[in-house]
Amino acid sequence: MDYVEALREKIGHDAVILNGSVAFILDQNGEVLLQQRPDKSWGLPGGLMELGESFEETLIREVKEETNLTIKTYQFVDILSGRDFFVRLANGDEYYSVTALYHVTDFDGTLKADSDESMQLKFFPFNNVPEHMNPRWRQFLDVFIEKYQESSTGVNS
């Protein structure tokens, strides 16, 4: 049983603070990797921290689990938290997310969707991401674009 499941067994649906990491993985064309989740919404690879993990360890583990890619290098982008990052899930669970955003600058492996968490994985131009994107993931994407649109990363909004 993972940390969040164990925590929920004890406290039910009450609001908690949950930490996680999200990856901005760009291909050679400067397109961003998005993940279609089981609810059919699109988001970024990443997830919640397990006990004892650092943000960086969470990033590496989640990307491997969800995409089959091994991160070689990455750069910290920002941490997003506060009232604007309150989440109420369909099952009634509530939490405030504290999410570390990372730009993955080098990776290895063959892209393969994890059938439990991903319906499909696909690279998209920043100016043509799917409309059915979770609003929280869209906020993360907007922060990344704002911070990097004039840098050498090739991000064009």
Describe this structure in words.
The structure is a single chain. By secondary structure, the chain is α+β, with helices and mostly antiparallel strands. It has one domain: Alpha-Beta Complex (Nucleoside Triphosphate Pyrophosphohydrolase), CATH 3.90.79. 23% of the residues lie in helices and 34% in strands. It contains 3 helices and 8 strands; from the N terminus they run H-E-E-E-E-H-E-E-E-E-H. The strands form 2 sheets. Strands 1, 4, 5, 6 and 7 form a 5-stranded mixed beta sheet that branches. Strands 3-2-8 form a 3-stranded antiparallel beta sheet, with no helix packed on it. Strand 2 and strand 3 form a beta hairpin. It starts with a helix and ends in a 9-residue tail after the last helix. Keywords: Hydrolase. Pfam families: NUDIX (PF00293). Belongs to the Nudix hydrolase family.
Short description:
By secondary structure, the chain is of the alpha+beta class.
Portion in strands: 25-35%
Helix content: 10-25%
Q: What ranges have pLDDT less than 50 throughout 5 or more consecutive residues?
A: none
**What name does the CATH topology carry?**
Nucleoside Triphosphate Pyrophosphohydrolase
Main pleated sheet: 5 strands, mixed
Question: What is the N-to-C order of secondary-structure elements (H for helix, E for strand)?
Answer: HEEEEHEEEEH
Which shape, going by the Cα principal axes? globular
